[in-house]
Structure formats: C-alpha cells, structure tokens
Amino acid sequence: MAARRISSLLTRSLSVSSSSVSTSLFSSLGKNSGRNGIGKRFSTAAALEDLIVPPVQIAYTQNLIDGKFVDAASGKTFPTYDPRTGDVIANVAEGDAEDIDRAVAAARKAFDEGPWPKMTPYERSRIMLRFADLVEKHSEELAALETWNNGKPHEQSAKSELPMFIRLFHYYAGWADKIHGLTVPADGPHHVQTLHEPIGVAGQIIPWNFPLIMFAWKVGPALACGNTIVLKTAEQTPLTALYVAKLFHEAGLPPGVLNVVSGYGPTAGAALASHMDVDKVAFTGSTDTGKIVLELAAKSNLKPVTLELGGKSPFIICEDADVDKAVELAHFALFFNQGQCCCAGSRTFVHERVYDEFIEKAKARALRRVVGDPFRKGVEQGPQIDTEQFEKVLRYIRAGIESNATLECGGDRLGTKGYFVQPTVFSNVMDDMLIAKDEIFGPVQSILKFKDIDEVIRRANNTRYGLAAGVFTKSVETANTLTRALRAGTVWVNCFDVFDAAIPFGGYKMSGIGREKGIYSLHNYLQVKAVVTPLKNPAWL
Fold it and tell me: Which pLDDT score, from 0 to 100, does residue 31 have?
C-alpha cells in the first residue's frame, strides 16, 4: 500500500461500543487462559447481523478471451461468496483446460500476429495510462466489489488499495518506453549489442487476499514489456479482475493481449502451468502450491517461473523500543487484512526486559480492535475469506492452546454467521509450537521472548521461509546488524508493510523465486538476446 495510506491506517485508534464475545473455548483453558482474558469484550462497529447492502452491481461473470466475454466451454459455473455471510454473490464461468487452451491460443495469436508487441512502447504506455484513468473513474464500484468479494474493510479498499493499483499502472506505464539493451565492448573487431525482448505468452495465477493489487503486480510489468497474458483468478475472488480487464479493453488494449479465466487450481491452474505454448508462469500463493506450479512448468516446456509464496515473518522488538509505538506497529504487522498477508509479522519477538509490559498492552490493543461489517466506517477487521480459511485459523488456535501457549485474548469465532474470528493473542510461545512455525494466515498474534541480538537472529532465521521481517529499535547499530543478518527479501525498520511501486518484493528460501515490483519485476518478462556483427577496419574498438 502507499506509505501515507498505511500510516493513516496504522495510527488510527478506534473505540466504539462493544458486544459480548463467545467464550465456548474459555471454559476448558485452565492455566493457559490469559491473566484477564475471560469475559473481555471485543469492539464491534455494529451487530454482525446488521449488514450494509454493497453499493455495486455484478456486471461481469464470464471468462474474457480474445477481447470477448464468453461462457466456459463446458457451460459450468461456480459460486463466489460474500464472506460476511457465506451467501452466494454470483455464479461465475468455471474455466478448465479447454478454456485455458482457447485463452492461450488467443494470447499466442496476439503476440505473434497482433499489434501489441509491434506497437511503439510510447503507445503501449498511453493505453496503460488511459486504463489507470478509467480505474480511477470507476474506483468506487471497484472498491465496493473488492470488499464484497474479499471481506476486507472498505476503507482499506477505497483509500489504500485502489490508489495503489492506479499508482502501479502509472509506474509501469512509465517503464514501457525505457526498456532497452546495451552496447557491449568486445575483445576483437565485433559490434556487440543486447536486445531486451518480450518473453511471449505469460501465464499468471493470482491469489485471493489482494485481488486487485496482485493483478497490478503481475499484469503491469508483463504488458509494459510487450507480452500477452492469460491470467487465472483465485476462485474465491474473481469479480474485480474481470471488471478491470473490461476497462483495459475500453482503454484500447487489442483483443487477445489480456485474457482472464476464472476456475480452480487443479483444473485451470494446472492446465496453465503445464501448457506447452505458455512461455513463462508467475504465481502467488502457498508454498505447497508453488512447488506444484514449478514442477508442472518444468515437466512441460521448462518455462521460467516466478514464485511469491508463504512467510512466517519475524517482527523483532528490541529492549530500547518505545513500547506503546511497538505495540501498535506489531498489531498492524499481524492483523492487517485480517492477518491474511503473506508477509505478516506473525512471529513477534520481544526482548525480555519489555516483554511483560508489551503483553499487557498488546492484549489491550487486540481487545480494542474493531471487528464487523467491512462496509461500515471505522471497521478495522472483516471476515476471513471463506469457510476453509476460517476453520484453518480456528484449528491453529486450538493447537496453540493444546501446546500450552497462554491465550491472552480471543480464541473463537465472532458472531453466528460469516467467517469472523476474534483478534487472538498468544504469549509464552515457543519456537517448536505450530503457531510459531506454520503460516496461519489469520488474526493470531504469537509473542515470543528473547534475551539478546545473537539469539534472536538465530531464532528468526530458523524457518523454512524468508519473505520479510520487521525491526523496531532506536539504535542505528542494532538496525544495521539485524537488517544484514536476517535472511529475508524485505526488512522493514520501524515501519511495516510499506509497498511502494518501486520497492522490490520477494523471498528467500521457500518464500519464492524472483522479485515483484520495481525494476526487478521487468526482468521476469524479458529475454536477453546478444547480437554480434563483424567490423571491417573499425576506426576504434
């Protein structure tokens, strides 16, 4: 998100009338219940049953192939849901292997025969800028649709993510006419140049937690480089991608350049990753699924793959920290987007000298968190995306209780319908507990204690992931030590989740391959060709 938008979300402190929490898990907690956890109340914006009707109509539910909305080849549809209630929003065309074949054929024809790769970079840039203007014009509908289909707070969609989406396309439009090769000196009488050429047909698979932002991260650099695209949406959140793809064609994008297929991973996703006529695949999602995508790409035509995968990011609060500020930032790092963020600061390491004070204040902040209908002003947390993720989060909470971590607050669902989970805080968490090792992807804060810098470096790096990390300290020396020692693709110092368009993002270890955003993302969608020509009697070499 844009840094100023994130800052406004972070510093806001909301407190409104409360409603009682369900305490069905508390009766069996015994010694593991928080010191004052039982009977506490969570802030809610309004009764969860009193929901606002989204101010938007569903316009596009078919697949977009070769510039036209079409039904799935099989005629099948699948439901997409409102996570506030579990009710069906719309039925969407269910693409499978045949639809992927049609989309890839359209993209291949558009790349080999169409005007897009042959268009001047400046004209491609102008189309991308016109698209960004259309998104801005329709931003109210898109923000409402994103919240309705995903469950994230409408204020987040409207004030942070839509502006960032527009900024990303401005950024990549600016790159379109600045991609060029080099002239390379050689040891003999030869003229050597490199050409940076579009890679061809790009297959892109995006996740459900940030549907619009992930669309921009994938589509922006691929189009700026002159490629054509087949994009598969997450089955949970197909609606905004279809809407903005339509706007792209209104902006003048030629048919076949951007094709959008909705469907399931084992059918449409697998067909795209293994397709012999796709030249490159980019995937964002879980590490386990990323392995499958990589395998399918390798076993088919050995196409290059970019992966942005899971994380279990450490957020390290040093002994010199301002505890109040550290509590707020750590809260934001974990609970933002309902905890459904691959880089969430989900292992909160706190120095032993400030640990007890931090626990009390972190619990109090979680109890003040405003949970409710994401369309209501002031709501900080909406529902989890679907029943599968909802149940997964609750299973991890039970695992934390069973492993003797101390449940300070939360621990159950909130309300009786939809997928709302109480903001949950565990203290006395050990490194070998599941809640400290696995990516929960929900509003569950695990707080661990450490004694010194060497210890926390070793423990923070003792994970299969390496996507991001956070450091909170007043000491430049401590910050420098930690930023160089932590094995992660991004380290935020005294901030978190700053996602400027130019800042590269990606992971070490099992958190992925390659980088999104910034100049580095262009490398994912370009081939480098060396051209060598003899020189006869050159005046100079």
Answer: 35
Tokens coding 322: 């301002």
Give tens-digit pLDDT for 23-72.
Answer: 233 223 333 444 433 335 566 555 566 899 999 999 999 999 999 999 99
Assigned architecture for domain 63-310+516-527? 3-Layer(aba) Sandwich (3.40)
Residue 197 pairs in a beta bridge with 527
* Burial bucket for residue 378 (CB in 10 Å: 0-12, 13-18, 19+): middle
Buried residues in 322-343 as b, exposed as e (16+ CB within 10 A): ebeebbbbbbbbbbbbbbbbbb
Rounded Cα distance between 251 and 413, Å, is 44
Q: Where are the domains positioned within the chain? A: 63-310+516-527, 314-501
Q: What is the pLDDT of residue 50?
A: 86
- Tell me the CA end-to-end span of the chain in Å, nearest whole number: 48
Question: What is the residue-wise DSSP string for 107-118?
Answer: HHHHHHTSSTTT
CB 61 within 8 A of CB 242: yes
Q: Token match 């994912």: residue? A: 524
Cβ partners under 8 Å of residue 484, min gap 6: none
Span 198-218, mean pLDDT? 98
pLDDT in tens, 149-169: 999 999 999 999 999 999 999
Helices marked H in 225-322 — which ranges? 239-250, 270-273, 287-299
- Nearest in space to 99 (alpha carbons), one of 232, 237, 279, 255: 232
Question: At a CB cut-off of 8 Å and minimum separation 6, what does 344 contact?
Answer: 311, 313, 333, 334, 336, 441
**pLDDT at position 21 over 60:** no
Q: Are 441 and 340 in contact (CB under 8 A)?
A: yes
Q: What are phi and psi of 327, to 5 degrees?
A: -60, -45
* Rounded Cα distance, 392 and 518, in Å: 34
Phi, psi of 84 (to 5 degrees): -70, -30
In the residue annotation, 408 being an active-site residue is answered as: no
Q: DSSP class of residue 25?
A: T
Residue 235, SS3 per DSSP: coil
The CATH architecture assigned to 314-501 reads: 3-Layer(aba) Sandwich (3.40)
- Please state, in angstroms and rounded to a whole number, the distance separating the CA atoms of residues 206 and 215: 7
* Distances in whole angstroms, Cα of residue 447 to Cα of each of 331, 405, 427, 442: 11, 10, 5, 15
Residues for the chain: how many in total?
541
Please check whether residue 84 is in contact with residue 44, taking contact to mean a CB–CB distance below 8 angstroms. no
Average pLDDT over residues 348-371: 98
Alpha-carbon gap, residue 269 to 515, rounded angstroms: 21
Residue type, 161: E
Among 308, 319, 328, 516, the active-site one is 308
Nearest to 366 by CA among 427, 433, 438, 437: 427
